[in-house]
Amino acid sequence: MSRKIPVKFDLHTHNEMCGHAIGTIEDYVKAAIEKELSIIGISDHTPYFHSEDDQPYPRITMARSELPRYVDEVLRLKEKYASQINVLLGIESDFFPLHHATYKKFLEKQPFDYIIGSVHFVDDIRHL
């Protein structure tokens, strides 16, 4: 009979880039190490790719221009802390049926380990 080994992890995290959380990505990685997690997934909110504006909703998600820095930072920390914790590059993406192709185009270009699909808005986001 095999014995199951518990794995402590957190795959749903947000950092200061999204505008509604505090702390840097590295702060979250260090906290996960301190709490003896085996895996930390960094999964901030995707930019609103369907907007012409770089940052139409600053308290909801990162700006479009921040995505490359976000990806680079998580990949840097993945390498830096590889001997202490498994850092995964994730993203939380709202699902907007009308903009599915736009999001797919942007997301498939990135080296994400996982994507959290979410529905935060049932009606058009312009109602915020």
TrEMBL record:
<keyword id="KW-0028">Amino-acid biosynthesis</keyword>
<dbReference type="GO" id="GO:0005737">
    <property type="term" value="C:cytoplasm"/>
</dbReference>
<keyword id="KW-0368">Histidine biosynthesis</keyword>
<comment type="similarity">
    <text>Belongs to the PHP hydrolase family. HisK subfamily.</text>
</comment>
<dbReference type="InterPro" id="IPR003141">
    <property type="entry name" value="Pol/His_phosphatase_N"/>
</dbReference>
<dbReference type="InterPro" id="IPR010140">
    <property type="entry name" value="Histidinol_P_phosphatase_HisJ"/>
</dbReference>
<dbReference type="InterPro" id="IPR016195">
    <property type="entry name" value="Pol/histidinol_Pase-like"/>
</dbReference>
<feature type="domain" description="Polymerase/histidinol phosphatase N-terminal">
    <location>
        <begin position="9"/>
        <end position="97"/>
    </location>
</feature>
<comment type="pathway">
    <text>Amino-acid biosynthesis; L-histidine biosynthesis; L-histidine from 5-phospho-alpha-D-ribose 1-diphosphate: step 8/9.</text>
</comment>
<dbReference type="GO" id="GO:0000105">
    <property type="term" value="P:L-histidine biosynthetic process"/>
</dbReference>
<protein>
    <recommendedName>
        <fullName>Histidinol-phosphatase</fullName>
        <ecNumber>3.1.3.15</ecNumber>
    </recommendedName>
</protein>
<dbReference type="GO" id="GO:0004401">
    <property type="term" value="F:histidinol-phosphatase activity"/>
</dbReference>
<dbReference type="InterPro" id="IPR004013">
    <property type="entry name" value="PHP_dom"/>
</dbReference>
<dbReference type="Pfam" id="PF02811">
    <property type="entry name" value="PHP"/>
</dbReference>
<keyword id="KW-0378">Hydrolase</keyword>
